[in-house]
């Protein structure tokens, strides 16, 4: 018979960044963690990092090739966000050498996203000083992205007329007729996946 009842789970103590969104390809360092308990003097904390790929949970390896599966959480580990999506970092604390040991778990998510915007440039310059009745021919665009194939990039084009009206331009429209005096503003957005 024990004269006490251990009803509490061990605590996970950590200092560092938890969760957030990071650029695809960046390197992330895990926060160092330790454990504490009101009664049990020995608490071990381990760390696991997983990433979901094609519906499967895969254990992530650090930059030195070590699988981050139940490793000692008192050490920092650096790993690269090699693909987009969510990375789950899980800390597990367990009472050691204790009757009926209790556990505790802390998980958070790091999201890896393509944060580099596509670029747009004009293959030829826009004309300067058109007259009423002239056609403003839209220049050919050069669109590039670090991840998305050019054929999958969505382009949204509009032109703002001198009177402030905005006209959406579909992909088949190659020019507009100048019918008002003033400045025409051509706006182009490129959206990657």
Description of the molecule:
The chain is mostly beta strands and 193 residues long. It is 0% helix and 48% strand. Strand 14 (154-160) and strand 15 form a beta hairpin.
Element layout with pairings:
Elements: E1 11-15, E2 20-23, E3 27-29, E4 32-36, E5 43-53, E6 56-59, E7 69-72, E8 78-80, E9 85-95, E10 103-113, E11 119-122, E12 135-137, E13 141-144, E14 154-160, E15 166-169, E16 175-177, E17 185-191
Parallel strand pairs: 2-10
Antiparallel strand pairs: 1-4, 3-8, 5-6, 5-7, 5-9, 9-10, 11-13, 12-16, 14-15, 14-17
Distance between the termini: 63 Å
Mind telling me the C-alpha Rg? 28 Å
Q: Write down the oligomeric state.
A: single chain
User: Main sheet, how many strands, which sense, barrel?
Assistant: 6 strands, mixed
What fraction strand?
A: over 45%
Total DSSP E strands: 17
Calculate the mean pLDDT score and round it: 89
The global form is rod-shaped
Helix content: under 10%
Order of helices and strands: EEEEEEEEEEEEEEEEE
Residue runs with pLDDT of under 50 for 5 or more positions: none
Give the structural class: mainly beta
């Amino acid at each position: 018979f024990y004269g006490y009842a251990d009803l509490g789970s061990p605590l996970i103590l950590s200092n560092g960044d938890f969760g957030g969104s990071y650029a695809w390809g960046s390197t992330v360092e895990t926060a160092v963690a330790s454990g504490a308990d009101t009664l049990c003097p020995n608490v071990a904390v381990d760390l696991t990092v997983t990433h979901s790929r094609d519906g499967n949970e895969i254990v992530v390896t650090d930059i030195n090739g070590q699988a981050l599966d139940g490793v000692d959480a008192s050490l920092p580990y650096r790993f690269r966000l090699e693909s987009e999506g969510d990375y789950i970092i899980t800390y597990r604390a367990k009472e050691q050498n204790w009757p009926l040991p209790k556990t505790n778990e802390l998980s958070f998510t790091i999201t890896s996203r393509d944060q580099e915007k596509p670029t747009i440039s004009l293959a030829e310059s826009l004309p300067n000083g058109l007259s009423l009745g002239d056609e403003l021919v839209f220049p050919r665009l050069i669109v590039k992205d670090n991840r998305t194939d050019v054929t999958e990039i969505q382009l949204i084009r509009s032109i703002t007329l001198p009177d402030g009206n905005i006209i959406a331009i579909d992909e088949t429209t190659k020019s507009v007729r100048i019918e008002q005096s003033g400045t025409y503003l051509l706006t182009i957005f490129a959206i990657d996946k």
